[in-house]
Amino acid sequence: MWEALREPFRYRKPKMDLASEAVKSVGLGVRPGGGQSKRQKAKDWQATLRRIWHYLAHRRGRLSLVLVMVLLSSGFTLLGPYLIGRAIDHYLKGPGGAEWAWFLAGLAAVYVLGSVVGWLQNIWMIGIAQETVYRMRMDMFTHLHRLPIPFFAKRQRGELMSRMTNDIDNVSSTLNSSAIQVFSSALILVGTVVVMLLLSPLLTLLTFLVVPLMMVGMRWITRRTGVLFKERQRNLGEINGYIEETLSGQRLVKAFSQEERVIGEFGERNARIRHSGFWSQTISGFIPKVMNSLNNLSFAVIAGAGGLLAIRGTITIGVIVVFVEYARQFTRPLNDLANQWNTLLSAIAGAERVFEILDEDVETKDEGAAKSLDSIRGEVVFSHVSFSYDPVEGQRTLNDISFTARPGETIAIIGPTGAGKTSLIQLLSRFYEAEADGGRITVDGHDITSIRRESLRSHMAFVLQDSFLFEGTIRENIRYGKLDATDEQVEAAAKLANAHSFIVRLPGGYDKMLQGDGSGISQGQKQLLAIARAILADPAILVLDEATSSIDTVTEIKIQEGLHRLMEGRTSFVIAHRLNTIRRADRILVLKDGRLEESGSHEELLERKGLYSDLYHGHVQLS
């Protein structure tokens, strides 16, 4: 048993143990004083509470009823002990009689009504809490879909999922119980003090002697648990992100035999949660122990002083009984407030993490005066465009790129890995924005920054290197390119992409249900479905980013006809490592180190015997 009790204290600090640093910062580690570091300073919890109230305010009517129920419940809680004291004094004068029966009936009615009122307030508050977190989840999910691509490039998906689930669940559990309990405890505390003062100011003063000790103890504990609860939430988000990452990359982990490494790294993260969770729960667990000890001290003071006063005839036995009950009720709300304060701190920490996401600038923030285009011809002009993913570092991915793609032209983009091929497409689609002084991009003469992103992308279709399919039927995944397409149009697009033949051979055909990310079919088949989806969208601008990279040579030959027909009359941008797939392009752009080295047709570039010629003849590798 002793070994089990000592086990939590045998923790060995792993590398970068942020939980241990948090413990040090609150005075439990080797650093005396324990001032908070800049990273660990608490944020504006009052502003967070105001934002939570903004969500609660949508149900003001129901919330008002809950508050009325809390007032009634608190009143019944205060009335019960008073009636018990009166009943005892009446019994000591002489048992029995109609008045005694009325006391008992009133006491029974108080407790029954108190239970009914408490049940109603709980039911209504649960409904308010669930609607509140429903709105928070909807707001966060909606906001996530309005954030720019760079935001997701810097965040782990699992960490974002943790904010949508664990952190919002913390808010939900707190609203379900803690919020009303805090309000109820405050009312009972005030009411108890008032009644105690009316009954006996002297006993009230003696009862209050323990209050300073309670306040000091609560302050010492809550100041330390606040940082630890926030650290625990952050650690939980990190470990969720790591779990999601390693499970998504399970094939790669096994292919490189990295199981032991990821298990070790998970162990370190798990240890951080264990450590921060242990200390936050241990320190917050001091609260009921301290409160119970002070409660016992208060009862002893009341019993001793009350007995002396009763002997002198200053107060009655019933008043002593009432005071003992009120003293318990006086310390119980303080105990509840202290316990629920830790829960509130945890919920506030979770709410802050949610509001951090909601405060991120959305992709359409600067589109107040932007316009929508009903149709476009597909003329694309890059004029002295420069771009850097991280402007602070100053290293440009693209440098002074200029070219024109006329309507209906097929533009092939090639170059070594890291040359900036995909970056061009990222800028054209406004997934990223070019530098303010880095030139401009126009579509049909309109600067793309003056076009609403949604409108611009509605005239484009993408077939990316990593084809993503959603959970659903094959038909639904193809229809993602045009939600109002008929079944006949879906099948026509699949035939054009040369996907129809393999689809009809699958069990269920077009109605075959695909699992997450299209598991159950080959990578090449997923790519064919992505091409069919782009065909169905019928775009003015088509982007093929390594669209045939996962397709075998035989299948690639089969779909070249379909792709050629698809690109007719559309401005097409083709990025490919296989040079034989771009020979039909009207113009080929050759990039190197973010610069446009060459531009021309296949024959023209071969005649120049430059970089393209070296790439084509294998003298220079594309990757």
Automatic annotation (TrEMBL):
> Which ranges carry the ABC transmembrane type-1 domain?
65-346
Name the SUPFAM superfamilies on file: ABC transporter transmembrane region, P-loop containing nucleoside triphosphate hydrolases
InterPro entries from the xrefs? AAA+_ATPase, ABC1_TM_dom, ABC1_TM_sf, ABC_transporter-like_ATP-bd, ABC_transporter-like_CS, P-loop_NTPase, Type_1_exporter
Where is the chain membrane-spanning? 63-84, 100-120, 179-199, 299-324
Q: Which domain of life is it from?
A: Bacteria
Q: What is its main location?
A: membrane
Molecular function in Gene Ontology = ABC-type oligopeptide transporter activity; ATP binding; ATP hydrolysis activity
Q: Give its localization.
A: Cell membrane
Membrane topology field: Multi-pass membrane protein
Which SMART domains does the record cross-reference, listed alphabetically?
A: AAA (SM00382)
**The ABC transporter domain, residue ranges:** 380-618
Q: Which GO terms describe its cellular component?
A: plasma membrane
Q: Note the Gene3D superfamilies from the entry.
A: ABC transporter type 1, transmembrane domain, P-loop containing nucleotide triphosphate hydrolases
Q: Name one Pfam family in it.
A: ABC_membrane
Keyword field: ATP-binding, Cell membrane, Membrane, Nucleotide-binding, Transmembrane, Transmembrane helix, Transport
Q: Does the keyword Transport apply?
A: yes
* Record protein name field: ABC transporter ATP-binding protein
UniProt organism field: Cohnella endophytica
